What does this fold into?
Amino acid sequence: MKKKKLSLLIIAMVCFTAIGADKAYGWGKTWLGYDLEQQIKAAGLSLGPFRIRTVLYLANAGYDSNVYRTPNNPIKDFSFTIGPEFYVNLPIKKKIVISIYESPQYIYFTKTEGERTWNNYLSGQVHFILNRFFITLGKGYSVAQEIWNTEIDIRPRRKEYSSQGSLLWQISRKTSLFIRFSQAKYDYEDLSFGEFRLKYDLNHTESRASFTGYYQVSFQTKFFLNFESAYFDFQYPSNPRDSKSSGIHGGFEFSPLGVFRGRISLGYKYFDVLLEGIRGYQGMVGDTGLSIRVVRPLTIRANYRRDVQFSAWYDNAYYLENIIGSGASLYLSRNIRLDYSYYSGRNTYPATISGQSSLQKREDNYRSQSVGLYFRIKKKIGLGVIATYWERDSSVYWMNGKQTLVGMNLTHDF
It folds into this structure.
């Protein structure tokens, strides 16, 4: 029903705004308005008032040595993902832009028929562009069958319904304030493995509110300070995972056109499980992905993530995820690039299995290395060949696993 309502809303907006659509754009004086302008200018197709960018891709086409990452009797298979991405923008009367993103994807496995599926990602937004204000209202719907986190190695089908609203106030050329409210509902399929019931354990609604201040340090760099609170309401009353969190984050955001690209974000979080007797988390969190162009042909990368993730593991409401990684990209020629990436991670769980000794307290350590060679066949056609090795050592022996992936990606950007 919600998917139908979202589709009707998007159709109604398009029909309503197509009347009197104007070629003249008005972006106000906000940095979000500038970013939207660049996005629209990058569109490869103009169809009347619509500005459309399309990407066709064939991804992860190749060999998987261990589809479910099991320690024994691994299932080997060949698979690929194929599908388009559509980015559609409709500017209206200089002050309104409707944006729609749609991406249907088909996942094919040669032998593992249960993993063959259609995934779909759909979202729609309306942007109101005023002189010093930028307002966005949006909704989204996705249904997909994927590996969702670093704890669960199967691919349960999940539906996500989301809505959000935000307001940017450009106080001055360098200073702005951003307020955002969002809600997302996650609905997993009724899939159980062993004693774990994913639908019961993980179905929930997240409600978030955030307040962010920005200061433009330079043309390509913004400093930000963010305050966020969230509430997590799980579907089943007997589920002990209802919780709330609050935190403060700060850092820098960099333009994708500069020497520094990406984001540095570090902060402190208070995470409280509402059920009495379950210990929460207070401590450092981070979400950083940064690349630096050292010299023209060489770029180095670093990433860091530390945060609380909900768990389906016995009596654990959550686990603490830590991931750190690095990599480099080297252009061997104008059209050939060599990539290398490495990351290591650790998941720690606060509780042991009921009635068991402390030896049953779970801790996972995992590592991944990948090498890729990318070719630019034409200006907007790229081919990549990638090999990845992944392994996990867990204090629970039957969660150990190794996996080798060898495949290719082919993209065509219109």
